[in-house]
Amino acid sequence: MSRLTNSGFYKIRFWITPEEWGEILELFKERGASFISTNYAKTPYDKQQVLQAYKQFYDYYAATEKAPDYFPHFVYSIVLTVDQGMAGFFVRNEGISFPYREQWAVDELPSIMISLPKDIRIQAESGEGTDYTYEDIREHRPFTYKLYEELVSEIKNRTQLLRFSVLEPDGLQVRKPSVRISKKAAEQIRSGWIFNQYELVMDTK
């Protein structure tokens, strides 16, 4: 199969509390997962360090006042040694833009995205030397894909679609991003500085 056939990513975007995130990470406990920074040094981290980083990131948005001199950032690769090879997920923050007073707001609402590439590079020998093909990850890394399905199922069981309203010249308008949010996270972020500063209304119950 060609790279084009299998290109792209499976992905889900969500917003949950640090406690809920810790419970999600339990799915990796028996899978030999390594948490690695995407910096040049590829710095490794353990689960507790990842949880602490997420809590700091989450608390920035849940706080009633915006913290100065903090740039919200949460990015990791989660590498697995299953399926007789290496594969993994990419986890990063992705902002949700919204309008404010007839222009885009300077700040963005937060979300976390977990993604898994749909293809995997397979090395093959040919008469002209080493060649590579890009094959369906579901066939070549079935346990990795199964874990992704478990992650998605667990996240969906804890969340519902995020719906919030912004103040437009003609009244409140509902925004419908492809992001899921847990009940507790919705309660906490609606009391945070970003909802107050931009006069947002949380519609997700």
Name the features:
single chain, 205 residues, alpha+beta, eight-stranded mixed sheet, three-stranded antiparallel sheet, 7 helices
Question: Secondary-structure blueprint of this entry?
Answer:
Blueprint: H1 3-6, E1 9-15, H2 18-25, E2 34-36, E3 44-45, H3 47-62, E4 75-80, E5 87-93, E6 99-100, E7 103-104, E8 112-117, E9 119-126, E10 129-136, H4 137-140, H5 142-158, E11 159-161, E12 164-168, E13 171-175, E14 180-182, H6 183-189, H7 193-197, E15 201-202
Parallel strand pairs: 1-14
Antiparallel strand pairs: 1-8, 2-3, 2-4, 4-5, 5-8, 6-7, 9-10, 11-14, 12-13, 12-15
Helix pairs in contact: 2-3
Describe this structure in words.
With 205 residues, the protein is α+β, with helices and mostly antiparallel strands. The chain has one domain. Helices cover 30% and strands 34% of the residues. The strands form 4 sheets. It has an 8-stranded mixed sheet with strand order 3-2-4-5-8-1-14-11. Strand 12 and strand 13 form a beta hairpin. The longest helix is centred in the C-terminal third of the chain and has 17 residues, at 142-158. It is elongated, with a radius of gyration of 20 Å. The mean pLDDT is 89.
Short description:
By secondary structure, this protein is of the alpha+beta class. Helix content is 30%, strand content 34%. The chain is built from seven helices and 15 strands.
